[in-house]
Amino acid sequence: MAASNLDPRLNHTLGPGARSRFSQGPERSPGAPDRVLKVFHYFESDSEPGVWASNIRHGDGTDVRGIIQRFVDIHKVRSAPCFGLRLSHLRSGEVHWLHPDLGVSHVREKYELNQPHDDCRYELRIRYLPKGFLNKFTEDKPTLNFFYHQVRNDYMLAMADHVDQDVALKLGCLEIRRFFRDLRGNALDKKSNYELLEKDVGLKRFFPKSLLESVKPKTLRKSIQQTFKQFANLNEEQSVLKFFEILSPIYRYDKECFKCALGSSWVISVELAIGPEEGISYLTDKGSTPTHLANFSHVQSIQFSINEDKERKGMLQLDVAGASEPLTVTTTTLTTAENMADLIDGYCRLVKGVSQSFIVRPHKGRPLLWVYSFIQPVNHKTDDYAEIVDEEDVHTMPSTRDYEIQRDRVELGRCIGEGQFGDVHQGIYSTPEHPCLPVAVKTCKNCTSDNVREKFLQEALTMRQFDHPHIVKLVGVITENPGWIVMELCMLGELRSFLQVRKYNLDLASLILFAYQLSTALAYLESKRFVHRDIAARNVLVSSTDCVKLGDFGLSRYMEDCSYYKASKGKLPIKWMAPESINFRRFTSASDVWMFGVCMWEILMYGVKPFQGVKNNDVIGKIENGERLAMPHNCPPTLYSLMTKCWSYDPSKRPRFTELKAQLSTILEEEKVQQEERVRMEMRRQAPSSWDTGGNDEAPPKPSRPAYPSPRCSEGFYPSPQHMGQHNHYQVSAYTDPHGRPCMPNRLYPPQVSVLDTQDHWKHHQPQDIHTRPSLHQDGGRMDLRGMGQGLPPSEMEEQLILQQHQMEEDQRWLEQEERFMKPESRNSRGSLDQEDGSLQGPVMVLPLSTPEQVAPPKKPPRPGAPGLGGGHANANSTDGYNEGVKIQPQEINPPPTANLDRSNDKVYENVTGLVKAVIEMSSKIQPASPEEYVPMVKDVGLALRTLLAAVDETIPTLPSGSHREVEMAQKLLNSDLAELINKMKLAQQYVMTSLQQDYKKQMLTAAHALAVDAKNLLDVIDQVRLRMATGARPR
């Protein structure tokens, strides 16, 4: 483990009397060894193998056994007698195995005093193996993993460059299989996965340098892909055991061999082999059969010494039960004899199940512990300690003292949640500046040990580094037991619950605002090179109805939540994670971007969790098959397009948070503009009177249903009854009725309608006025209600009502039949979209000429027995003459032309014609046009509109003053249409070369069509005023 990424669980003392790691040790003389010992080990962590290490603080009374035991206790290892501590001098290559009874201070004084500081490497290793060790280690997973990493590290350093390429490929792929346990068998077939393995992780971690340099990259890639598939179905333990199986014939990792001689002189040169299966044996040459010398259970004592001859060789003597004389082995150096003695002693202790050493001082008969008894006595209450610490604690880990607050200033309130370490309470923090500051207090139930307290306070150490309006702020900490973390209180709780409760009160703009605020917080974290690793709606807190804040730093991986999938290090939120995080356990800013995309999806879905009903193990398969979360209802296409970019399989293709923040800001502004437009249209739709009410507050009669279309139907606009009476300039088409059924386009209604329908309409909408207004006349804008059943006997009235009910059911069946002929995405009065091939069709427009050739909608089948209306004034002008955007042509009907007026020198008529021609020309050119050509086309339309409005301004003074407001409202509508056209043009230019380009082209066409239709409506308004002037009727 790298010194900068140490496991917090190692921050503990070895035994009683240990002091806090923040306390200072007793003063030592200059030049004395430092009391912090760096020990390398093979307990797996996130850094590269070979650099896993922990710093250990020790006292003068600490021995090697105590240090080993602490590692064993922390990692819950059951095979403690198998471990030993080795000291290596990196420059000379000399190795010393340190006996457990040796004092650490004595070892450092003996071996480090005259050596460079970085020359000595202390390494914890498994040295003493029991019989059938692999079977026993499978029951002790920490020991099995430790031994695997140790053997594999030895193989990569000493053997990997000399083995066959096929063996090297298999062993490397087994490590990939073990390390990336969630990687699917065909995952490396994807180019992005292989490149991530090759560039980000590095192939040198798995394969020897000789293989990488001798094989061509393309060939190597194919070989790795094919070999990996052989082991695709192995789990972690099976991969480890398969590794040992393949390696054992070429590397005997289960025994140690020493070159030495049997006897007290160099008589027989042999290779002494010591291991769990053979015991103590020797080989005279490599091909010979081992000759057994002794079993560990028969060894009674071990002695080593140095010969007093010139060569000063080492000598090892074993007292073996049943042997007539000691077994003597001569070595080249005393160090080799010491190491052999330590190895045999360790096996003897392991086999006999004792902790007392079998090594005795030569000629004295005293245990080895007595050899080092010259160490001075120490005060065990203050100095007999050894502590394993993180290097962050010595160098980089920030102190919490600056945020330490007094417990009596915090008043705990009700419990508002539960965390990993304890309950979360609402509270009040009192200071002179803020007498009653609401806070949230995280408590720790079991902070009696430094281990738990370190984990608990880690979140506070992380949070104190951030200062952002959308990140939860740290108020302070209380480090003394029981530990508390005091944070700002977000009154509305977590975002997911908030979305579920307020689902029907939140509009789309609010949801996009939440996503934008989170993007600013994550862009801030990205700038500080911080990876959150658990971005989800449950980890976002709601401060107010328009403000959210990101929280849960550093603790979310330990949360007990069903959304988490248990991996090697804690539990991980699989359904939110990027594929490289699932496959390779790689967490980067790019993986945070993926998770943010899922979080946005949660927000748009009002708190629904992703991949509902899918098992955690199956999520990666769906992602690799190209499946993504579906577009939420009412989600803008631009926002969903942004989500899909966040979910790019290749991390390099995902946007950065700075880009996401900018794009979300644009989408938010667009939604606000559209929301304002919808509000404006709604207010216009719900206006209590028409453009000119004439001061009459009476409810108008229901007009006859005309056969011409609504110009604003695609926007959901529907008029007041007065509007409908004015020859129906604005009629509803796409609006839904109270039962959720879409209203049908006006062209589906014939020019004839039953009088009873009118009566039924007002029975539904004006139940009281039916009885309070008995006398209305149709002439002059009033209708005679006599004959609507007011004076009929009850029996006839009932018959009429039954007949009306049958007619309504017939109408509904007819409407449903006609509805099937319409395309779902068609926009009435806006042009049509062919959904089969996605092609864009221009709007079908008719110039306001006197004799147009038009195609009209089909007639509604006549209803038998329904009373018809005469050809009155309302029916004479019941058709506008414009075809809807959808081309339904079952029958041909020639609708009446535009008002029959003298068009000589009619500037309004001429400019309306010119505007419509400009729109038609733009519609015909827009499909193949490039974004640079949009502006000239829209400019031509704008110039034509400006000329039209100027002509209208000249015409208004010639019209009665009572009609001015009506004309001005129609003018304003044209200005709004032009602004909409310009806005859609900008969007089409902005999203060029994206999947949304065609959609915005279609929206441009829709906006242009609306402009042309509203221009014709303006002409109709002026024509009606002129007709009233000609007949002498007062304006309505």
From TrEMBL:
Disordered as annotated region, ranges: 1-32, 680-713, 821-905
InterPro entries given in the database record: Band_41_domain, FADK_N, FAK1-like_FERM_C, FAK1/PYK2_FERM_C, FERM/acyl-CoA-bd_prot_sf, FERM_2, FERM_central, FERM_domain
GO molecular function terms attached to this record: ATP binding; non-membrane spanning protein tyrosine kinase activity
Residues of the Protein kinase domain: 410-668
Limits of the FERM domain: 35-355
Gene3D superfamilies for the chain: 1.20.80.10, Nucleotidyltransferases domain 2, Phosphatidylinositol 3-kinase Catalytic Subunit, Chain A, domain 1, Phosphorylase Kinase, domain 1, Pleckstrin-homology domain (PH domain)/Phosphotyrosine-binding domain (PTB), Single helix bin, Transferase(Phosphotransferase) domain 1
Predominant subcellular localization, coarse grouping: other
Binding site for ATP: 442
SUPFAM superfamilies: FAT domain of focal adhesion kinase (SSF68993), PH domain-like (SSF50729), Protein kinase-like (PK-like) (SSF56112), Second domain of FERM (SSF47031), Ubiquitin-like (SSF54236)
CDD domains (UniProt xref): FERM_B-lobe, FERM_C_FAK1, PTKc_FAK
Record-linked Pfam families: FERM_C_FAK1, FERM_M, FERM_N_2, Focal_AT, PK_Tyr_Ser-Thr
UniProt keyword annotation of Membrane present: yes
Keywords, comma-separated and alphabetical: ATP-binding, Cell junction, Cell membrane, Cell projection, Cytoplasm, Cytoskeleton, Developmental protein, Kinase, Membrane, Nucleotide-binding, Phosphoprotein, Transferase, Tyrosine-protein kinase
Enzyme Commission (EC) number: 2.7.10.2
Cell compartments where the protein resides: Cell junction, Focal adhesion; Cell membrane; Cytoplasm, Cytoskeleton, Cilium basal body
Membrane topology classification: Peripheral membrane protein
Reaction it catalyzes: L-tyrosyl-[protein] + ATP = O-phospho-L-tyrosyl-[protein] + ADP + H(+)
UniProt GO BP: cell differentiation; positive regulation of cell population proliferation; signal complex assembly
GO cellular component: focal adhesion; plasma membrane
Descriptive protein name: Focal adhesion kinase 1
Species for this entry: Scleropages formosus (Asian bonytongue)
Organism classification: Eukaryota, Metazoa, Chordata, Craniata, Vertebrata
